[in-house]
Amino acid sequence: MISRRLIRVKVLQLLYAYFNGNNSDDLSRYEKELEKSIEKSYDLYHLFFLLLIDVNRYAQEQIDLRKAKLRATADDLNPNTKFIDNKIIKQLEQTESLSVYADSNHLNWNSVPELVKHIYTTMVGSDSYKKYMDEEPSYESDRKFVMNFFNEYMVDDDMLYQVLEENSIYWNDDTEFVLSMNIKTIERLKADAEKVSLMKLYKNDDDRRFTTDLFCKTILRHAENEALVRSHIKNWDLERLAQMDLLIIEMALVEVTSFENIPIKVSMNEYIDLARFYSTERSNAFVNGILDKIVNQLKAEGKIKKTGRGLIEE
């Protein structure tokens, strides 16, 4: 479930903490912290599905309340139940692995019922919801709406971000990454499936090793890579270089030299994007320029080796 991009973000954050803390501490402590940070992202993946289910149940409660009114109208007594009958949500409710994981890790939205109400109110007031409710019932219509639920009602929602920030320091930069994984899960769901096949924490063992190796090797090669960066900076004091820029460059150098199955262009683009979001305004251009010079040198020296189809010619 955890994408390589999110892994890089998590590693960068822990590296920054390591080099700004007491980095004489046992490295294993930081490795455990990195693993915990990634596990919290996996918690969030489950929590977002649980929030959808809670909003659906809240919608049912509102229908029941309107039916129970002393002077219930015809609309109150004969409501449109398209949302509460959403087939995707029913499949999620039948997914035992979701409920087991939530119970085992004490994941729920019980302490913030106002958030459930807020998301529900945002949803029912939207044009997309009204359009959905007027459509003919179909599995694809339900799928499209659930994907839109995550993309429209949760991305950039101030109240949701505030709740997440108050509950975990690990979730500050996770929301959009994790929501994209929720959406991908729904995209591949089959209509004849009784339940949802949830993503695993790591896609495979390679991703798990990538996480640990990228983190540890960046630390172990810090002095070597710092010297390499220094040799390519003209008329610039290394101490004036933003620390985040330096860490991003060092991570990129470790990745292009240590992971033979990742194309150089992929690594370069990923770290230039990281510089754009996590450092100064002009960092992406600076990081791009320095990386380009160093990578060309390393390629000429035969220190970068790529294997696999489509990689050797790099």
Any chance you could write out the topology, listing elements then pairs?
Blueprint: H1 4-20, H2 27-67, H3 74-77, H4 87-93, H5 96-104, H6 113-124, H7 127-134, H8 139-154, H9 158-167, H10 175-187, H11 205-220, H12 222-231, H13 243-258, H14 264-278, H15 283-300
Q: Report the mean per-residue pLDDT as an integer.
A: 92
Task: Indicate how many domains the architecture comprises.
Answer: 2
Strand content: under 5%
Tell me the distance between the termini.
Answer: 29 Å
Written as H for each helix and E for each strand, in order along the chain, the element string is HHHHHHHHHHHHHHH
Q: Provide a count of the helices.
A: 15
SS-derived structural category: mainly alpha
How much helix is in the residues? Answer: 55-70%
Characterize the overall form.
elongated
Q: How would you characterize the overall build of this protein?
A:
- The protein is an all-alpha fold and 314 residues long.
- The chain has 2 domains: 31-187, no CATH class; 221-300, NusB-like (N-utilizing Substance Protein B Homolog, Chain A).
- Helix content is 68%, strand content 0%.
What's the quick description here?
The chain has 314 residues and is an all-alpha fold. It contains 15 helices and no strands.
Task: Name its key features.
single chain, 314 residues, mainly alpha, N-utilizing Substance Protein B Homolog, Chain A, 15 helices
